[in-house]
Amino acid sequence: MxxxxxxxxxxxxxxxxxxxxxxxxxxxxALESLAVERGLIAPETIDAWVEAYSEHIGPMRGAKVIARAxxxxxxxxxLLENATAAITEFGFEGNATGHLHAVENTPTQHNMVVCTLCxxxxxxxxxxxxxxxxxxxxxxxxxxxxxxxxxxxxxxxPDTVAVxxxxxxxxxxxxxxPERPPGTEGWDEDRLAATVTRNSMIGTDRVLKGA
Amino acid sequence: xxxxxxxxxxxGYGPVPVQSGDAPFAHDWERRMWGLARExxxxxITIDWFxxxxxxxxxxxxxxxxxxxxWATNYLMIFADDGIATLDEIAAGHVAQPAPPAAPKxxxxxxxxxxxxxxxxxxPADTAARFGVGDTVRTLPHGTAPHTRLPAYARDRSGTxxxxxGAHLLPDEGAKGRHVGQHLYTVSFTARExxxxxxxxxxxxxxxxxxxxxxxx
Lengths: 211, 217
Known about the structure:
Distance between the termini of chain A: 57 Å
Shape of chain B: globular
Shape of chain A: globular
Radius of gyration of chain A: 20 Å
Strand order of the largest sheet of chain B: 4-3-2-1-5
Distance between the termini of chain B: 24 Å
Number of helices of chain B: 8
Largest interface: A-B, 101 and 122 residues
Helix content of chain A: 40-55%
Number of strands of chain A: 4
Radius of gyration of chain B: 20 Å
Helix content of chain B: 25-40%
Mean pLDDT of chain B: 97
Structural class of chain B: alpha+beta
Strand content of chain B: 15-25%
Strand content of chain A: 5-15%
Oligomer: heterodimer
Order of helices and strands of chain A: HHHHHHEEHHHEEHH
């Protein structure tokens, strides 16, 4: 059983630090072997998880939700009211979206999401997070100098646009609704979804390209 | 805890790896680590104990290990703590007495498992909410031991409650394996309150904060 004993956990960490080669590939191989031999998981199940998140679960889901919000005002109202409930209309609910909140960009407001304490991310709607989202640079700087961080992503904000950074310190997760790109009047949902980038739903991309 | 993981506002970490870090994985072992962690390998842990375990890593390792290297190390700690494997078995990479193998899952089963894994962290509290939307609140100047979700950069600062989410599982207790509900709020802080006069006057940072982290301003 888990001890929930901080001192014991820290002692084990120090032991691992001193006695185990740091090579991450070896550590993961050891972990997988131990888990498989204990009957906790089958190796094929790991492959199935990777395939599920490559083929079925990813930012294409979020993009579909955003495209619907752009074309259906009633859906957008439901999404802003309760995003966890709204994405069940697509069957996209799941891991880490039990408390999902959608936040909307406007001509005078930009939203950006970070998790400074770990790496919380709305997996079932955006898939696996990019490595930069988990980097020390992004986690440390997004709250302190969001405009400088955005500039590194190629986003330059005028002074007239306010930035709100959402630091995910609880089990709430965020998806940004970017502004609909100009020149997309009359486009159907599939075509609109193709304009939505993963980064725009995290808030590190802002101006999407239409035609 | 006031550990190395509490990165918000710290300086010196350089540019964000926008291009080189665009993909979720750089190596196959990262993919396998992520897949392993998707299954509930250790049912008795809590999400807060997992996070707290990462915080308890040797600080130099936390800063220099890649993300999934930290996960692998934390799971090995959890295996040892939980008794799933001894330290000798971890060193050997094999257990002395294997159990019957787990049945493999298909991709379709995983997709359904993801959908069914929509967890609600709402947990009733035995007190009425102390704060309401629009209230000005102040954060405590310190965290709680051993685990807190009040980052150092947002301590002893004044902000405005912009949402009340009812009561949620309190991570401070979750890290001890206890299931306790407490009112949870989204609090907005001006960038100037957090970072001083050089910050943009219109910018804000929001955090989800539990009631015990807050006092009336």
